[in-house]
Every structure is written in C-alpha cells, then in structure tokens.
Amino acid sequence: MDESQSSAPARRKGTFIAKHAVTLGIMAVAGAVLVISLGYNLGSLVQPGSGLWPATLAVVVMILCVVLILVPGLDAEMESHEAVTTWQQWRTLAFAVIPLLLFAPLMVMAGTSVAAALLAFYWLKVLHRCSIRYSLIWAAIFTVAVNLIFILGLGIDLPAGLVFGGVA
Are 136 and 159 in contact (CB under 8 A)? Predict the structure, then answer.
C-alpha cells in the first residue's frame, strides 16, 4: 500500500472532524445568543420584543447545524477537495459581511427600504456578478417583499430614515 492510499482515509476523517468542530462551534455561539436573547422581552410576532428576532435566528442556525451534522452527503464535496481557505475566499467573505455592518447605519439615515434595496443590489451585482438590469429588478422585488412581510403581514412600521423625515 503506498502513501497516497494510506493518507486518503486520514485526510477524509480529519476533514470530517474539522467540519463538525466548526459546526459545533457555530451551534455553541447560536446557543449563547439564544440564552442571552431569552433574557430580553420576546413579545409576539405583531409586537416583537427586543429578544424575538435574535432568538428566532439562533434557533434557525442551531437547526441548520443539526441538519448539517446528521444528514449524510452534505459534506461530500468538502471531502473531495483539500480543505484550504484561499485569500480569494476570505476576500469574498469580507465583501459579503462589510455591507451587513453598514446596513444598520444606512437604515437609520435612508430608511429600511433604501437600505434593503441597496444591500440586495450590491449582493447581486458585486458578489454574484449579475447584470445591472437583473440586479435592479430583483432588488426592487426584494424591497417590496420586505415591506409586504413587515408592514402588511406583521403590522410593523419600518424606519423611514432621517433623510425621508423619520425619527432616529
């Protein structure tokens, strides 16, 4: 038996363990967010408290982590490639996360609709390299959907932003 055959199972096992370690780490962070958010008022869907959305998101992330651990085959692509993160992947991650950090200040200044439209357009045009027309159409659809869900569906007023006469 040559060296490449003996290292393949070890590499797969190492990748499998690494994937589950990261998944369990994410689950632990989501669990901490859930515990902290339960300390706040959850409210209801119509009158959400400050802890409702963080708790909801934490539960969703924990469920997805359990699915990732329990469903076989979700890691098949990862096992077939070397688990190496490249500079390009880190750059893409930064380009995806930085706009999220800018979303809240933009929402205060320009309102939820403008912030949501710009975020959707950015992700489609910059990250997914879609055409301008396609990005504009889907950004508008996303913004309308956000407004329908929150304003009509849940009865929650979204911030209009300081530029459009909203109160901070």
Answer: no
